[in-house]
Amino acid sequence: MLVRLFIFLILFFSSFVTIADTVWMKNGDRLTGTVSLLNNNKLVLDTKYAGTVTINWSEVSTLETKSSLLVKLKQDKQEKAQIIKPSQEGKLLLVNGEKHEIALNDINQIIKPKKLGLEVDDLVWTGKVNLSLDSKHAEKDSSTFDIDFQTKIERGNRRHIISGEYNRKSTDKNVSTNNYSLDYTLDHFLTKQWFWQTNGYFKLDHIEDLRKQYTLGTGPGYQFWDDSLGAFSMSSLINLSRYEYKAEDNKNFGAYGIRWDYNRYLWGKDIELFTTGNATKPFNSNVARYTLDTDIGIRYKLTDWASLNFKVNRNIVDGSSDANVNETRYILGIGVNW
């Protein structure tokens, strides 16, 4: 009776143990965790005991995974594996109904296929906050403060993105930059890649003659990719905008706009390249010939949750009015990610 109870307790508690992926090294070591990425000959293993571990692919003997992965081969082929089973040194078994042995040297990338559209049945919440401070005490005192955030919520066939930014710069207590902006985007996925986007944008500037900007737009978009290596999407919108000036009459106008959001990881996941932005062409050239607001930058991973960021921000409103905007800002700061 006691033996049966003991066996029952072992089976009961073992059902709560998380099944981990396993990586066997050529030197005999064995690492457990979750395989999330292979790129540029770097295998990324997420662990509870050491955070994210980056492993040289040339030092791996074989591995075993418990979840679905997309394996890209050097011959421009790719195979989807339900699981990966270990094999002899330098090889592994892809299991997708049938077992298929592949040499590690023939593998170019391993990524997690990210579910989109109706396949997403749970809530995914990600976000980041970036902060930049600069204070100079000299013949002319100056200070710069910049904070921006973005949070993304995905559930079902909808993706919500909320972002904002605040900038302030002063020299000898004379403020030359003081503005903030808020942006909300709703993407409704019609297929795995096509979506319909609705966007609302507001900006308030306490310095420039163009004091307030309101924009509401809608139109189709396309998700080129969204996986462990990064994401890239573009959308084409028809916008209704309103500009409010300090010294001029307010202007309401329609415009054609393009928006983009791109990021790409390099060297495992230590470095991330990114660019986001939008460009518009008003239907009425008396308002502005074109507008551009974009960020281009790079992030260097310090820890699992912190990064060092550098970006260039370009903001242009090119029109017939004297209240044009032409700004370029270079921002270096620390970011927090979740």
UniProtKB/TrEMBL annotation:
Pfam families listed in its UniProt record: DUF481 (PF04338)
Origin superkingdom: Bacteria
Protein name: DUF481 domain-containing protein
